[in-house]
Every structure is written in structure tokens, then in C-alpha cells.
TrEMBL record:
Pfam families for this protein: Mog1 (PF04603)
Biological classification of the source: Eukaryota, Fungi, Dikarya, Basidiomycota, Agaricomycotina
An annotated Gene Ontology molecular function: small GTPase binding
Organism, scientific name: Grifola frondosa
UniProt family annotation: Belongs to the MOG1 family.
Any one biological process term the GO annotation gives: protein import into nucleus
Entry protein name: Ran guanine nucleotide release factor
Keywords: Protein transport, Transport
Length: 178
């Protein structure tokens, strides 16, 4: 999987992403606490967001809390967590080891009669010294009410791209979390 290094939040974070992704801020307003990238040929998106730490001190439970918050924000009709994995390799002194979560949500969009099936990948990097959680999520709409479908091979490629991004993410400037 080839990728290119992108600088996020003014260079405070770097991450390897597929080169063909579109920076959503070129198309619409994006909150200062987020970086959003879109696949040009599907509804797949990657979001990196700086958030205040959630209550659970157990990182796997914290990842689940972020997934639940995302389900709430999406008004998901249902949600399922497939897997939560703690990684043990810290990238460097500034970048904590991420906790990885995969799951799915049924989300009804634009008053549709049927819900879209969205697979979600999430990586949580807890920056304890700053009481902050850095959360990277990928949303993959496997099937939508308007008939769009992400093929299984595209899902595998998206998952591979997410895993590369999760392993490559580096915090370069801790001042981002001031």
C-alpha cells in the first residue's frame, strides 16, 4: 500500500495516507479540532480529531466510549463493536501506542427509510499529560439507502490504508494539545 506523508494541524502531526485523498477543508468548512479526508470515488472518509479525554482510564473502555459518542452523533439505530486491540509499541516519546477498535453502525441518513451500514475503524491515542485524546476514525459505508456499495476488496484496501495510517501517525508538536 503506497501512501504519502501528510502534515495535519499545521505540521503538529504527521500521518501516511493514500495520496489520492481529498482534503475536505478544500470543499467545506471543517472544525479547527478536526482534519477530514475523503476518498474521491466513494463515501469513505478519514477523520483525525483532537478531543478532551473521556472518563474511562482503561484505554480499551475509552476507545469504546469514543465509538459510542460517534454512534450518538450519527444517531445510529444500532451499533456493534467487533474488536478492540491494545497495541504495545509506542512510536516515540510524544506519540502514545494506539488502541484500535473496529465496529459497525446502522445510520439512517437524510430521512431515508433504510439505514446505511457503516463500518468504522478507530484509533485512540491518549495524550495523558495534556488530558487529550487524539482519535482517528475511518467511516466505510458498506451499503447505503441510495444503492451505493463498497465492495469487499475495497473494504480490505481501506482497512489496510487505515492500519498504515494508525501505525505511521506521529505527534511532532505536543503544543497542539495546549
Amino acid at each position: 500500500m503506497s501512501g504519502s506523508t501528510k502534515q495535519l494541524f499545521g505540521g503538529a502531526i504527521t500521518v501516511t495516507l493514500p495520496p489520492r485523498l481529498i482534503d475536505a477543508s478544500d470543499l467545506r468548512q471543517v472544525p479547527n479540532t478536526q482534519e477530514v479526508f475523503l476518498y474521491p470515488d466513494s463515501g469513505i472518509s478519514i477523520i483525525v480529531e483532537v478531543l478532551q479525554s473521556v472518563k474511562p482510564t482503561n484505554l480499551e473502555e475509552a476507545a469504546k466510549a469514543h465509538f459510542d459518542a460517534l454512534a450518538h452523533d450519527n444517531s445510529a439505530e444500532s451499533q456493534t463493536i467487533s474488536e478492540v486491540v491494545s497495541t504495545s509499541t509506542q512510536a516515540d516519546n510524544l506519540t502514545p501506542a494506539p488502541v484500535l477498535l473496529s465496529g459497525s453502525q446502522a445510520v439512517r441518513k437524510f430521512n431515508s427509510l433504510t439505514a446505511d451500514e457503516i463500518r468504522i475503524l478507530l484509533a485512540l491515542y491518549r495524550v495523558q499529560s495534556k488530558n487529550a485524546d487524539l482519535v482517528m476514525s475511518m467511516n466505510v459505508p458498506m451499503s447505503t439507502a441510495n444503492g451505493e456499495v463498497v465492495r469487499e476488496e475495497d473494504w480490505i484496501a481501506a482497512k489496510d490504508a487505515f492500519n498504515v495510517a494508525a501505525r505511521s501517525l506521529r505527534i511532532v508538536n505536543i503544543g497542539l494539545f495546549a
